[in-house]
Design a protein that fits this description.
single chain; alpha+beta; Cysteine Rich Protein; 3 domains; two-stranded antiparallel ribbon; 37% helix; 17% strand; elongated
């Protein structure tokens, strides 16, 4: 029987250096695994050990999820822009979404007007202009008179218009008004300063003529008289004029003949003025009619209607501009906004030509 062989076992023993490397590798792996299992706050970069928030793949300590505007903790809804987080109200503030009237936050619907933003209620109740007649907000299209008063367009067909100043007659705008027997409607702004007495018409004639003479417009006042009349009488006398005409100059020429030879020729003028209109309107109209007398007495009279009526309106303008009465501005506006091509158009042409020129140059132009 063969003799059994003795087996010698061989053991591979790692050298100390290799053992150290394996140890370091295992330690590093454990460290990495441990680091990967930890959660860091996106705000403070510290390890989160308790509850945390997950927002857009970022983790936050709950107290570190803060608003970029007010720097306070966000606990509910939020808005995000350019990587920053906001409370909804703070976001609206940061975007300028604040009502320009009340200063409070704008939420969903708002109104933009002239680059400003408003709550709808703030805009309607406090920003929109109010109707001068009914005081309700003016939404959409509306009318504006020459004085800047705004009103709903339908009111123009619902209320009367003042035959003196053109305003719509209402309690809010004019303090009401009255109706004359000749059919005219007069607002209380005009009625409170209206002229009715013949003596007052004569005083106004003297006052206006003195002012025009001082401006260089010489008038033969001994041949000029005045009378206040109603609308029916004036309409019968006028040969030309709009419904808004408030005066008329009735001129007659008398000749003196001896043996059929003309010795002398002289014109006489009777100015008719509507009674019951504002005293400044009377003065403006008297100035207009006095210029008619000057044209008859000092020129050939061969002017176009546009030049004749425009020059008379220009003299009314010169007179109004020279007096110290706040009400004159309203009646200057009436002259400036007269839509009539003859009266208004002629006035605008002559004012553009002679407004800054001596009155003598204007009169010389008319004489030529």
């Amino acid at each position: 029987m063969p003799t059994p062989k003795r087996i010698k076992l061989r053991y591979n023993i790692c050298p100390p250096r290799r053992i150290l490397m394996i140890f370091l590798f295992v330690s590093l792996a454990n460290i990495l695994l441990t680091a990967q299992s930890k959660t860091y706050c996106h705000y403070c970069q510290k390890v989160i050990t308790g509850n945390f928030l997950q927002v857009d793949n970022y983790s936050f300590h709950p107290e570190h999820f803060i608003c970029s505007l007010c720097q306070q903790q966000i606990k509910g809804d939020y808005n995000k822009k350019d990587g920053k987080y906001y409370h909804p109200d703070c976001y609206n503030k940061s975007e300028g979404l604040i009502c320009s009237y009340c200063g409070k936050i704008l939420e969903q619907k708002f109104v933009v007007s002239e680059n400003k933003k408003y709550h709808d209620d703030c805009y309607v109740n406090y920003v929109l202009p109010k109707c001068s007649i009914c005081n309700l907000p003016l939404r959409g299209s509306y009318s504006i008179d020459i004085y800047g008063s705004k009103y709903h367009q339908e009111h123009k067909h619902e209320v009367n218009q003042c035959d003196c100043c053109g305003r719509l007659i209402s309690q809010r705008l004019t303090g009401g008004g009255i109706k004359y027997d000749d059919g005219r409607s007069i607002c209380n702004l005009c009625y409170n300063s209206a002229v009715f007495r013949q003596e007052e018409f004569k005083e106004i004639l003297n006052r206006v003529s003195s002012k025009l003479i001082s401006l260089g417009i010489n008038l033969n006042m001994k041949n000029i008289s005045i009378a206040g009349v109603d609308k029916r009488f004036l309409k019968d006398k006028m040969r030309r004029g709009s419904e808004l005409s408030q005066g008329y100059c009735d001129s007659q020429t008398k000749q003196r003949l001896i043996n059929n030879k003309l010795i002398n020729e002289e014109s006489y003028h009777l100015i008719y003025i509507l009674n019951g209109i504002h005293k400044i309107a009377v003065e403006s109209t008297v100035a207009h009619e006095l210029m008619h007398t000057w044209l008859i007495d000092n020129t050939s009279g061969k002017h176009s209607d546009r030049t004749r009526e425009g020059s008379c309106n220009f003299v009314s303008y010169l007179y109004l501009r020279s007096i110290n009465d706040q009400a004159k501005n309203d009646f200057i506006k009436i002259l400036e906004n007269d839509p009539d091509l003859v009266y208004g158009g002629g006035f605008k042409e002559l004012r553009e030509k002679f407004d800054d020129q001596p009155v003598a140059d204007f009169l010389k132009f008319l004489k030529k």
